[in-house]
Hints:
This protein has helices at about 1-20, 25-60, 85-95; strands at about 60, 70, 75-80, 80-85.
Amino acid sequence: xxxxxFILFVLFLLFxxxxxxxxxxxxxxxxxxxxxxxxxxxxxxxxxxxxxxDQASRELRACAGCGTWIDxxxxxxxxxxxxxxxxxxxxxSMASA
Length: 97
Ligand SMILES: [Zn+2]
């Protein structure tokens, strides 16, 4: 029974020394794993946002003031079907109405 305890102690000591010897490598491996997980999370999060952006930028609207075709994402939305390319066009059409 004493021998078993001694063997366990030696094994524990060896494991501790090994961990101490390779602690930098172990920390590096853990950091690498964390980085890879973060990259995976970021790519999963970014992908749908990019798809939505692409769809919005493909949608073109004619400015109600000057008739210029503009991206729906960059347009000033006045109501459901009325878009303006700039504040100047909004003010001009307000003044003329
Ligand atoms: Zn305009």
